[in-house]
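Students often ask why we bother predicting the structure of a whole assembly rather than each chain alone. The short answer is interfaces. A chain on its own may look different once its partners are present, and contacts between molecules only exist in the joint model. In this exercise we take two input lines together and write out one structure for the complete complex. Read the inputs first and try to guess which parts will touch.
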Amino acid sequence: MISEMQVQVPARHPSGLPQSRPYSRWRKYKNMVHNAVTNPYNLLALAAIVLLTYFIAVPLMEMIRTTFSLAKADVRRLGGDARVGQFTLYYWKQILTSSIAKKMLYQPLFNSFLIAISTSTIGVSLGAIIAWLLVRTDLPFKRFFSLAVIMPYMLPSWCKSMAWITIFKNERIGGTQGFLNYLGIQTPDWLAYGPVAIVAVLCIHYYAYAYLLVSAALRSVNSELEEMGEILGASKPHILKSITFPLVLPAILSSVILTFSKSMGTFGVPSFLGLKVNYYTISTMLHSTIKNQQTNLGYTISIILIVIASINIFINQKLIGTRKSYATIGGKGGHSTLLQLGKWKVPLTILLLLFIVFAVFLPLVILLYQTFMLRVGDYGLSNFTLHYWIGKPDPMIYDGLPGIFNNPKFWHYVRNTLKLVIVTSLIATICGQLLGYINSRGRHLRSGRLVEQLVFIPYLIPSIAFGAMYLSMFASSTTVDILGYRITLIPALYGTFTVLVLVSIVKHLPFASRAGTSNMMQISVELEEAAQIAGAGFPTRFAKIIFPLSKNGFMSGFMLIFISIMKELDLIVILMTPDQTTLPYMAYTYSAEGVTQLSNCVAIVMFLIVFLVYWVANKFFNANIAGGLGG
Amino acid sequence: MSRIVLSEINKYYGSNHVLKDLNLVVEDGDFMTLLGPSGCGKTTTLRVIAGLEKPQSGNIYMDEREVVNAKERFYEDPAKRGLNLVFQSYALWPHMTVFDNVAFGLKVEKVPKAQIAQRVQNALERMRISELAQRYPSELSGGQQQRVAIARAIVSEPKVLLLDEPLSNLDAKLRVDMRSELKRLHRELGATIIYVTHDQVEALTMSTKIAIFFDGVLEQVNTPMEVYQNPASLRIADFIGNPRINFIPGKAQRAGDLLTVESVLGIHQFNADTFTNEMPGDGLFDCVVGVRPEQIEISRQETAAGIPANIYSAMPAGSETLLQLWVGDVQLLAKQIGLKNYAADQPVWMQINPESINIFHKETGRLIKRATSEAEE
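Now the answer. The structure tokens for the assembled complex follow.
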């Protein structure tokens, strides 16, 4: 009696149910196709998976395959019935066990480890301490300091190594004398070149990453958490150690991963500061093997580099693991009480100021100063010239190379660079937002996780190895014949603008997608659903709801990638051809040819462009570069 | 006409079975409240009706039209179901003014401009917020945002209005205001309203019907009065009503058309016309007696049929007084209207009308004896 009154069960009351059509399998399939095609998530995820496989998984596979296949140049060496392209373990044996293995792999690998470990320890500590001082204490001149400490990020690391050489080089190795030498101070070789110099330069570059990540984390920690500790009677060092530090530990660990893998794969700095004393790291070794046409050996080294980077990230993820989850606890910091530094205030301010002067301004000033020196090594006023900026060609100076503003090539390269940077950052940022959409909406789906993992791969691959990978894939075209039609699966793109754009986009996708994800996570699904119910299709929703709400995040992602590509050398150095030269490569070749002043001029121009973009984005779009870096 | 029929709906999130064989009919013009503790599936039901979730099996009909046929993988687009939804978070677009928020759906439908202005104005007036048209959501209070969200939902003149815990973010006073506002809206629009809440007072005061969910199962659908007087199970009885119902353990014996129940309240006998379908066959079994606090009358003098009890504590609260009593080893809560004073441990006598109490089967937790309709009249 009662249950019938309570629950009206349509199944038992056929009259209550509208007439239902008989089940049709055909209609089911039709609807399934319709559902799949009209769901924007499916379409996006499918496109992402196809493209990411083509641009990431295939090149990686192709590179791995190459290391097992015999190259033409090595056929003779093996003798007998060796054929081109046959399966071989020759390269792996060469690299891992032969007599040259120590010189080609183990010694450079050891050097790289030494540099990466020292850099991530010192650089991250430095960045974290500065972040804490600027976010949580009552240090004065914060506005100035917080702009000054991220300036190193805007100057490529290898430009700093140029400045380092300028100061420390001696006549024995450098040819001309450095600044200290000019003042009569003899600099020892170990300070001018080699691991100490490399670590020092990398530290004053990479501390900026740690600073950005840790300061963002510190800002999200509610100071009430610290005040609670204070109420309970804990001393300030104790609070720092047992409350603040554990809360920002995830950010610190992600800076360690970032710094470690970046310094492991960095090419510019060890090439400037190491090659002169025959100090090879794995990345400079990789570059020289590829330049020497030993491509297969180079790829083998790349794979070893990728494996190391993957292991590093795997270990770090295990370490961060569940701890990552409380990275957001404390939510919006909002109100925060600053720690009184008391008697430490003045000494710390002076210390930080000195650091800024030496690590940030000095390299810039040195670079700039050198552009005004007619002859390298003479720091007197009589040597002053504007030739390298605006001079006409003079056969007496560097075989008639004009000042950069008078060099048509320079303007060509500026156009090249701007074109590359703008096209690439725009496409990468848009892709990043779309990938962010997939990541944030598909967290619980297999497709979403697959996309997330695919996007992450370029992060594992050091820039120089990534360039090598694209070289291997696009050096020649691959075609298949299907039903009489010749279809180009992989076009030959080496030496084209397209390959530079592609490699830059794909390599920066992890950052772009992370910026996009953090951006999309802030946009509640309900905002989109409300529009869906109102009848707005996906394009309308994206244009009217999602895009306007993610504008600032879009700018942040754009700026992050813009700055990164603007100073990119490691990634494209292997793919460069004279026609497609960019400013960083121009500076690099000038420097390699010993035309220091011109090289510095180019570096200064690059810095100014980056600084301008940062300033505009920050001022007008409230952009924030830390978002895309986050781990 | 907009009658909604949900038939055999099953919804899973991964291996998590959220809705289990759900059957529900919402008649045209109903104010149907989906009620239950958090995680019981009520919001999922709402989202399934809205078309934001796709159930793995089952059918949904709106009027005579099929909008979901899971077997044929047919899911009608949410926008084509003639309904609108007010989200718990309001989901107002922060970058649009109030006017633009409300006008959005009409613009998507390509309604002529003059008509949009007119209809938006009407909707805002109906929610009494026309002066806020040019403000941004961040410049509004929670209550005002709530009104904008409702205006946005009603501007498209939906046949069905879905509301997902719309009052849960408001303070207590605003909540009472909005309740009467929503009730008035229901009358004026004549639309079917489906309303999700975990607040049983909202459910009892506003709805024409309540559907109660536990763990993804629809346990009871009926009028608020019936749900209150004859909750179908122990957990519904426990969930509905504030202060909570008293449960008293007892022994029951059924012999044909007669049920005999023995507890600290004494021995009572009930006739077959009060039995429900859940009544077990002849025999002896454990039962639970359900008595609402207001059904217990208290007398300070001994009465003939009175059950002796002791005051444990008295809690006068202005319009009513709650009494905690000990009867044997059972503690009971009684409610009296007005301010009453009692001393601790004071002996009192309770009067309970046996017709108004519920009897539940202890093992199944189902209602086996209904309260007779005396109170309904």
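Check your guess against this: Chain B has a mean pLDDT of 90.
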